[in-house]
Design goal:
By secondary structure, the chain is of the alpha+beta class. The protein has helices spanning 51-70, 124-136, 147-156; strands at residues 4-14, 17-28, 33-44, 101-106. α1 crosses α2. The longest helix is centred in the middle third of the chain and has 20 residues, at 51-70. The radius of gyration is 17 Å and the shape is globular. The two termini are 19 Å apart.
C-alpha cells in the first residue's frame, strides 16, 4: 500500500537511569504522516519501589515524547509566539498514539533508586528518527518529524 516500515533504537542516561527505546514506525510518503506502531523500552533505574506506577509513568512518557518527536513545535514570527492554540500547536491524538508500548523493567535492588520520571523521554525522539532513516534511507535531524518536514525530506531524494 506504499507504507514504509522501519525500526530504530536509541539509548540515553538521565539522573542515574539507563534507558533504551526501540521504535517501530510506519511512514506514509504521500501524506508525510508517521505512526509509531510499536515502542519497546528497556528501563533501568536501580531499585524499583513501585513497578506498577513506574510502568504507567514510562508509558505516559513514551506517549508524550512521541508527540514531541512527531508533532509538537513552538512557532514564532519576528515578534511573537504564533503557536497559541491546539490548531497551531498540534499534539498526538488518541488515534495517532503508539499502537503498542512494551516495557521491560530492570530491577537492581543493590543499586539506589534513580530518576525514573522522565528518563524514557530523552531517547524516544532519537529512536523515532532512526526508525525513519531505516524506513526511508533519509535522515531528518530536526524535530519534530512533522508531515511537512517528512514530505520535504523525501522530495529532496526523489
Amino acid at each position: 500500500n506504499g507504507t514504509l516500515v522501519g525500526q530504530g533504537i536509541a539509548y540515553a542516561q538521565r539522573n542515574g537511569a539507563v534507558v533504551a527505546v526501540v521504535a517501530e514506525i510506519e511512514v506514509d510518503p504521500a501524506t508525510g504522516k508517521i505512526w509509531a506502531r510499536k515502542m519497546t523500552v528497556a528501563h533501568d533505574c536501580g531499585l524499583i519501589v513501585n513497578p506498577g506506577e513506574l510502568h504507567r509513568v514510562i508509558e505516559g512518557n513514551i506517549v508524550q515524547a512521541t508527540s514531541r518527536g512527531i508533532y509538537e513545535e513552538v512557532m514564532f514570527d519576528r515578534q511573537n509566539v504564533t503557536s497559541i492554540d491546539w490548531a497551531t500547536y498540534p499534539i498526538v491524538e488518541t488515534q495517532d498514539a503508539p499502537g503498542d508500548i512494551q516495557i521491560v523493567l530492570i530491577n537492581r535492588p543493590d543499586v539506589p533508586s534513580a530518576g525514573a520520571g522522565e528518563s524514557s523521554t530523552k531517547p524516544t525522539p532519537a529512536a523515532l528518527a532512526n526508525a525513519f532513516y531505516d524506513a526511508t534511507g533519509v535522515r531528518i535531524r530536526q524535530a519534530p518529524l512533522s508531515p511537512e518536514r517528512v514530505k520535504a525530506a523525501l522530495a529532496k531524494v526523489g
